[in-house]
Amino acid sequence: MVVHIDYRKAPLVVQRFGDIKKLVEQTLDPMVSAYFKNIAQKKTLIELLQERSDIQQQASEEMRTKFAAYNLELQEVLIGTPRATGGNDQIEKVLQQLRERQVAEERVTTYEKQRIAAESEKALREAQARADQQTSITQSELSIIVRENEGKANLRMATQAAEQTRMQARAESDRVRMIGEGEAAKMIALAAADAERITKTGLATAETIARQAEASGGARYQLTRQVVERLAEALEKSGVDIVPRIQISTGAASGEGGALGAGANPMAALIGMLLSEKGEAMLETRETATQKREEQPTA
Q: pTM (2 decimals)?
């Protein structure tokens, strides 16, 4: 205990206690011992040692008022290291435990700080590595964005190309359809014109033939003339003699109705047959069939 006695109050202290020794032995020592015994009852020795600074401050504040009652000025309370009597090592063991505990706590603190330092170093290395790779990361991200944009552009171009192809195919289909319809209409018109031409040509030919037949004396004479012309052309091309070079006659005369006999000239026989009643019947039959065909409506 650091105590100060004011010179102005010193006579009162001496008058009260006689001398300083009695003051310490009769007053200060019992008061201080009782105070710290009361504190020690509430704490262990290790707590007293660990909380010594707080106990000193608390004791200084509380005992300053008590010392003032004795005309004493308390300056400071100092708590030293406790020491045991000879042969008692309990305090030393406690102090050793306290030292070991402090060492362990320091180790824990050290390990915690080392862990924090390791984590900080790891974060620092990751940050450095990220910073070193930042350029590559940025380029990769930009490359991804560029590829996405290129993909969108290609998709849009492909869609436009497909739409254009679809429209071209539709236009080509319409063109082919229109051309086909035009060709069909053209063919129908040409067929109609051709049919009309053929009809008119047939009618004109029939009319011409009819007029020729009328001019030649009728269809019978016209047919006779055509047959004779065809026979003449055939004989001319074949080179067969009309009159045989050797003729054998049995002396038979011409038959009835002006018909030639069996030994007569074949040409004369054929002409005679055409001019006979059978030829007339054949010619009339042919003429009737021709008129029926002309009277039928043209499709």
A: 0.30
Helix (H/G/I), strand (E/B), else coil: 114: helix
DSSP assignment of 208-255 equals: HHHHHHHHTTSHHHHHHHHHHHHHHHHHHHHT--SS-SS---------
The tokens for 212 are 């020729």
Q: What is the DSSP string of 196-214?
A: HHHHHHHHHHHHHHHHHHH
At 260, is the secondary structure helix, strand, or coil? coil
SS3 letters for 169-192? HHHHHHHHHHHHHHHHHHHHHHHH
Distance CA 169, CA 165 (A): 6
Residues in the chain, total: 299
As a whole number of angstroms, the distance between CA 47 and CA 64 comes to 24
Residues 223 and 286: beta-carbon distance below 8 Å: yes
| CB distance 63 to 32 below 8 Å | yes
> How many other C-beta atoms can be found within 10 angstroms of the C-beta atom of residue 259?
15
Q: Which run of H or E residues covers position 3? A: strand 2-4
Residue whose pair of structure tokens reads 């067929």 in the numeric block: 191
Model pLDDT for residues 222-271, shown as the tens digit of each residue: 666 677 777 777 777 776 665 555 555 555 444 444 444 444 456 566 66
Backbone angles phi, psi at 240, to 5 degrees: -80, 140
Cα(first)–Cα(last) distance of the chain, in Å?
153
* Amino acid present at 246: I
